[in-house]
Amino acid sequence: IQGERVPALTYSMTGFVNGDRASVVSGEAKLSTTATSASPPGSYPITIQVGSLKAANYGFEFVNGTLTVLPSNAP
Fold it and tell me: Which candidate, 66, 68, 70, places its Cα nearest to that of 46?
């Protein structure tokens, strides 16, 4: 909501095979957005980069996202 702090950005991982789970990955992806608490209502890109992610038998492919800032009078 406009005027509020930008929420924590999160991500999820999919595509594991052979019974593997997210525990085979270490580290964290780096997420960023151009939105700030002063941003007007609208859509802002969320960019994801490898950061410190590592996995012995997997590569990473990223899909960026969108953060939507709502007007301060939104329900």
Answer: 66
The 3 state secondary structure assigned to the chain is CCCCCCCCCCCCCCCCCCCCCHHHCECCCEEEECCCCCCCCEEEEEEEECCCCECCCCCCCCCCEEEEECCCCCC
Please write the tens of the pLDDT for every residue from 56-74. Answer: 999 999 999 999 999 988 6
Residue 37: what residue type?
A: S
Q: What is the pLDDT of residues 1-32, one digit of tens each?
A: 899 999 999 999 999 999 999 999 999 999 99
Chain centroid, CA 44 distance in Å: 12
